[in-house]
Structure formats: C-alpha cells, structure tokens
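job 3f2a | input accepted
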Amino acid sequence: MGFRAFYGNRALADEYVRGFEAKVGAHYFNDQDTVELARVAVEKLKDTLSTIIRKELEKADPAAETEQEAEDRARRAFFRDDVMSAGQVGTGVPYEELLQKGNVRELMTAFFNAAYYNSNTLPSGAAGSVDTLQKKVISGAAERALAAEPTPMPTEDGHDAAPGNERQRDELRRVGRWLGSHRRRAVSWLKGFARDPFATGNVAALSASPRYQWFTLMASVLGRRTIGGDEVQPRTPKYYADAGTPLGELEQRFVARHLDLAEDERLPDGQPLPWREGAVALRPISNPWSRRVRSFGIPVQTGISTTTARMLLAAKLIGLDPQQQETFLGALMAWMLPGKDHTLFEIQRGAGIAGLRIDGRDPSSSRYTFVDAYQNLPGKPKIGDVRAMADESALPHDRLYDDAMASGRIAEHGADWLTTVHDVFDEYVDDPDLANFNAMYEDFENSLDHDAGLTPEQGDAKRGWRAEKEKLESLKKVIDLYREENGLSVDEFKLLLSKRHRQALTAWTGPLFPLLNDAMKYRHSWNPAKRLLGYALFRRKVGMMVGEGRILAFSYASKMPQALVSEQFERAKQAPHSAAEWKRYQNELPALRRRLYEEISWQSDMAYDALQQLPKVGKESKPVMVFRGERASAGVGVWRARRSWAKGRRLRQLLSFSRSKAIADNFRDGVGMGLLIVAKLVGKYARDIAPFSSAVHESEVLLPPGAHLAPMAEGEAAEAATAAGVNRGDAVFVKEA
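job 3f2a | predicted structure (737 res):
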C-alpha cells in the first residue's frame, strides 16, 4: 500500500516521521540487547581478523610466535584518529575499554573502521590499515585462512563461539566466487565493480536481484550533493543529549583532545562538534527516484543506505546468524538515525539489498511502505512497545489520520452506525463479563410495573435495552472466541487496534465497502493507466449511489457515504420531483466526490494497516476452514467463476470470507446457487476481523492484498469437503500458499 494520502501534507508528515524516527534511534541506542550485540559483533570481527593475520604470519615464518602479534594487529584495526568521523575514539584507547565502556555509536564506528573504513587514507595523509576485513577478503587471505578452520562447538545460546563456522565459510566462498568471476571482471570498468567486496556494485550484485538493486540504488543517490562549508550547522553535545543518544566518555575525550581541552574536561553543551554526518553534510536528494517514492507517501533523505548493505554484508562475513543480523540492524539504526544520515525506510531498504528479512518481510519489495518500516522494527517488538516510542502512543500515520478527522477530511467518523459500533465495542472492553450491564438491565426491568401496563415511552425504552443486550451478547460471543483462539487477555485485546484502526475496518464493512476495495486494487498501482481506470470505476459507482439516493427512501443504513450527503442533497430529497434541486446537487457533486475519494484513500490505507496488527488465522497443525459465496448465473456464469479460480489467485485487494457457511450461502443467493469457495487457512495471510466489523454476526475473515490462494489437490480437497460438511462438486477448494 502507498499511504499516499497520509503524505499529502509533506511538511507535517515529515515532522511527525522525523520525530518518531529519532525516538526509534534512541530506543535502540539505549536497548541493552542491541548494545550487547554490538559488542558481540566487534568481538567476532576481531577474532576473525586475528585468525586471518595469525595464518598469514605462520605462513611467512612457521617457527614464530604469532598469537599475540595477530591479536594486537587485529585490535588496532578498530581505532582511527579521524575527528571528522562521528563516534571515533582515537588510537589511544585500549580495546578492552572500548568493549566495556563503548556506547552503540562508538562500538558501531569501531566495527565500521575494522570492516572497511580504516582501509582509507587518514586525514593526516598516512596510509590506512592493511588489516581490515576488506583488505583480507580482497587478497583472498580470509577465505584461505578460514576455509580450513574446524567448525567450533556452539555456545549455550546456540551461536558459534569462534570464526570458521559453516555459515561464515559459505559467505566467504560466495563473495570470493563473485570477485573472481568473469562477470565481475567484464564490468570492472564501471564504478562500484572493482575487486572490493564492499564496492557498491558488488554489494548489489551479491543480492537476490542484482540488476533491480543496482539500478534502484544508483537512481536513489543520483544528484546527491554536499552542503558547503559556510552553510554547515555543526551538531553539539546538547543535540545528542536531547535526542536521547548522549556522547560517550570515549568520544568526548577524543574530541576534547582535538580541541586542546583537558581530557577530563566535559565538553560544553553548545560546543560545535568537528564531525559532519547525515543532514549536516548532505542536502536532501531531489531526483526522479526520490520524487516517485515521495509520491507514494515515503519520506526520503539521502537515498538508499549503502552503508547499511555494506555493514550487513560484513556481519554475514563474520558469521552472525539471521537473528543476530536483525539485532545488528537495530544497532545500525541507533548509529544512523540520530544523525539523520537516512530515514528509517532508506536504512531498511539497504537491509533488503543485503538479503535481510524483517518478520518474514522483504524491505526491498515494492509493496513495503514507510509505515511497514516502523511497524516491522528489528527484534520484532510488540506493537504496543513500538507505539510507546511515539508521542501520545500515536504513530506518525495515526497523527495524520487524526488531523484529517479534525479538519473534516474524513466525514464517515460521524455516521450514526459507526458511532453505535464504537460505543458497543467500548462497552464490552470496559465490562467484558457484562456484569455491570446485566445489573443495570435488571434494575431497569425491576423498575417497570408490568401489571399496570407499560407506557409508550417505557415500551420504547424496553425495546432499546433489549436491542443493546442482543448487540453486546453477540459481540461478547465473538470476542470471547477470538481471545480464546489467540490466547489474549482483555487488556491485550484492547491493545490490538487503535480506535483509528477499528474505524477504518468498520468503514470497510459499512457504507464505503464497494469503493474501498477498488481503491486498494487500483489506487496503489505503479501503472498510471490502472490508477485512471480505478478513478473511473469510482466515479461510476458514486453515480450509481447518488442515483439510488434520488429514487429510494434513503438512510445511512442503505449505504450512502456521509461525504456525499450535503445540505443540498437533503433539500433535494425533500423535493424528489424538483429537477432544479437535483441539478444544484449535481453541480456540487464533483467537489463532494473528490472529498470522498480522499477519504477512501485514508480509510483503505488505514484498513490495510489495521490488518497487519491482527493475529493470523489458523495454523499448519490446526487449519481453519472459511467460506465465500459469489453470485453467478447458472451454466456459463458458474463455469466462468470456477475457471477464474482454477489456477488460484494472487490478491490485489481485500477478499472477504466467513467462518459460517450459512453466511456464504446468503451471499450467493442460497444453497446450490452461484459459486461457493472453501479456503483452508494455515496462518499465512488471513486475519479475523469479526470483533471489529459493523456486522459482527457475519464472522468475517479478510485476506489482504498480496495473499496467494492456490487450488487444493484432489485428495486434499476431498478431505476438506468432508471436514467442512460441503458437497465436493458444489464448491471450489483453495488454500493459503
């Protein structure tokens, strides 16, 4: 999904996003698991370099004592006298002190040095280190040294204790094969394809889709420009302290020494720091890639983060496992977000080049949005934990949605039917056993004098109480089943969705349904022709709604979107035969239609976002059968409907199923009519939205865009038909694939 509407006010969206991203950076900067992983990464890189250097020394002089010299040389690779680079601690710091006292910025900078940055010439003009991982891979020493190393025994936490594990050897061989390949040598004249594992082109070439990653990467950094000396506004210690990422003791001492201050003297809060990073050094990019990405609601700063891709490649080369790599990505965020080197999306996009998947999702996917980026954070924190990082527990798109409601751009939130749904839902979560409600209902019943007869007012009140009781009991039954299946307490259930999410999902099941689904199908297409087609279909459906509104005795229950109901519409309804009144309404309809389309944009994106927060339905070990009824004329119509499902479907929009076959039969006009689709859900895509639906009794389950339904094999379909109590020849049988 694109969240295009959310980014319509770019300045405000950027403000909200930047504020949240700063909090994400501070979260990982101070997270102990992230700090510990940064130490582990530094130690593993040191052990890897030490092993390689030791093998080189032994080859040169088999009789020499090499252990201590190799260790000392490996440790020196982590330190660099370069005060223009953030996080440097200088060469006078003992390695043990770095490990013990270093914060995430200092540790990640040290890793950066030893991985490849220390290969570069120093500001003083002195040559860089020959003992970086980059130099050892280029020379082939890394592969030669580690290929013969025995695989170490795993430690208690399941991770390899020393260099030479199979994962590391496989990665070294893969990189070595590419560097020595004819294909790389054929393009070595191009920038980024020198014999260097961390060259930009080689990093992209080592990805799962080299051409796509290379061209996208190059397009993203096109026209990147530095900020001139007179315009530079250097950062200060106060800036980092306010961001929740204060300078560490070691980097403070190094900067103080550079400024000719006493090493134990604290840097003044307003002291300009000598280094240049992120937004201080580079202007926000403006190129075709950035404009296209921004048009889909994704904020950008300086293009896709190649540093992220390089550092994650280094993490693979030292043998970090996938779980450690994900935590390492959190450390990279702590390292880069406070300095505004990149946006969160750009960092995760760089991680996608390195092949890292976050919670099973590929950040390189064209469907991966900036909202996905901060809801799929490394380490998979619960959504409640993510929201706790945000202002007032509202993520950036939540705040933008609130602004749209406050400004009247989302009209549907005031509809009577939606208010009723919210009230009933809130009543349940405040009184899950209905004890308070039942007590009040009993008090009301006891207050009535049935022998004397009820007044008309009392009769209306009694019917209202009974209707409320039926709604609550129906909702309680659905939510209790939902909580039992997913192991949720009442408090955990309350946290699943914000009120904004509930509203969008309820809007999807209410008046906006026929418009929302087409919006999901066409509005986010990269193809302009399809987007135009989507808007044409939208206009057609609006015309049909207005036409029905002119003829029928209308109410909100009959599916009239509130954005189309104006004062002129009400006047025209009062005079249904007045052509003049309807003409005046038709004149204002284009403006109302545009307003409704904007609301559709907000609601479709928020509904999709809401689905991502809900538990998935079914498991491989305990599948769930759901049903969908589709109308089709007898004979050719049913044959065509079956044929459309013959090869399965990759969904481009939300698709609705029900746990109840009776509900599906109603939608196909009765048993034996139309087409019945039976789907087996195994916990891959589908989400149960029954508690949040405007029609709770329908037990609705939604499959989001991108879900893949494949036809079942004959034997599997026969078993599913028996389990579901369905005639095998009366339905099409599919499953999540």
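job 3f2a | The longest strand covers residues 624-630.
job 3f2a | closed
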